[in-house]
TrEMBL record:
EC number: 2.1.1.56
Family annotation (InterPro entries): mRNA_G-N7_MeTrfase_dom, RG7MT1, SAM-dependent_MTases_sf
Species per Swiss-Prot/TrEMBL record: Lentinula guzmanii
GO molecular function per UniProt: mRNA 5'-cap (guanine-N7-)-methyltransferase activity; RNA binding
UniProt keyword terms in alphabetical order: Methyltransferase, mRNA capping, mRNA processing, RNA-binding, S-adenosyl-L-methionine, Transferase
The name this protein goes by in its record: mRNA cap guanine-N(7) methyltransferase
Known function: Responsible for methylating the 5'-cap structure of mRNAs.
GO cellular component terms listed in the entry, alphabetical order: nucleus
Pfam family membership, one: mRNA_G-N7_MeTrfase
Amino acid sequence: MPFDPVRDAVLNSPATEGLPTSPSVARRATHLSVLLNSDSEPLPRTSSSLSQIIHLEPTDKLSSVKPLKKAQETTLSPSDSRPSSSSYFQPASTFPPVMRPPPLLYNPTQRVTPPDSILTPMSKAEMEMYKSYVGKGTARLVKRKRPRDDSDTGDEPPVKKSVGNGGVVVEHYNARPEVGVIQRLDSPIIGLKNFNNWVKSVLISKFAHPALVTSSVRTQRNKGKVLDLGCGKGGDITKWSKARISDYVGADIAAVSVEQAKERWEFNRNANRIQASFATYDFCSQNLEDVFAPEILEKPFDVVSSQFCIHYAFEKEETVRRLLRNVSHWLRPGGTFIGTIPNAEQLLEHLRELPPENQDLSFGNAVYKVRFESREHSGMFGRKYWFFLQDAVEDVPEYLVYWDNFVSMAAEYNLQPLYKEEFHNVFTEHQDHSEFGPLMVRMRVMDANGESSMDEDQWEAANIYIAFAFEKR
């Protein structure tokens, strides 16, 4: 008869004892050793009363079975094809180790920070610094030239002394923090800043681009070499990357600003396709070859750009000549020199309009303020005034650039004027241009309906500058 475990379990149950059975259904043993290992007759069935189980009364069946080994004595041989039933009672410590795949190693290929900088505890000084940290502009680059004495405090940086008007300018721009794109949108003069950037874009497109396309300095995709004198924090790097130049050299008198310009280039995905070099450089007192390596200056520049800064050189004639010498010497024939300077004619006109009895020789509005030290001045250099521009310039000394004097001196260095316009006239000339008109909308100078983002005070402040372009003959 076929083996049926359900049927045999019922027939061999103690509850079925004494019940009549069918002759055709013979009881068979269900002892595991008999069923699996023996072809002999089944062992005689014994009763399995509760008293026998509790008192461990021996039976014929139990006495004939070899006792089980203790669980802790059972071990698993490596040669066993399968574990015995008693091996499942081993303690957890006796199980063989489970084979798992090795863990994946953390091995980034584009790490931004060095490996040993992760999870390094900050010092107390660093924690204090980062409580008010905005950017590198909040720190000053200071080189100690004397040993520290007992009066110095351990946690305070030494104070750098300003040297003349140039020192005031350096400290001002070094101290200005670098802010992100989102923060710049919150500037109270964002409309004026956008307009100034638009004017610079017009200069690049009209006068720099023709020189760049004929450049001998080129790569597979880009061409042209640019020197950005007074690069500041690198605000024009994006404009030059869109012009698809191949080489950019940025120089500024403020060391912190130079570091921020370098960071902007490094983290700008498009700009870092350009070969770029940066250095702290004072065009009033240094020659370019004293600052940059010979290989950087091996080929001349196609464009020299100097935005809102060369008027600082007009303190003295010799500083202006040094500036013009550096521009002309490293600019190739046919190259262009573009920039923006204060509008001396307009500033002097405002000064003349002040009542004669006024002791305070200042004028302006809520956005800007100009303060002269005297009504009269002799000579073409050193006409000083103090300038304030909201959210940009904090009352620093500047110098007037007399245009005719500038042109005559530039001619001595083979620089011939191509263009000179007040910012208001640049707007009037190009607002309906097929390229520069839509560019004003993209740069948020005005919206699609022609509404300006500048108020009247910002519009007045815009015209204290002029845009210029020279060509080296």
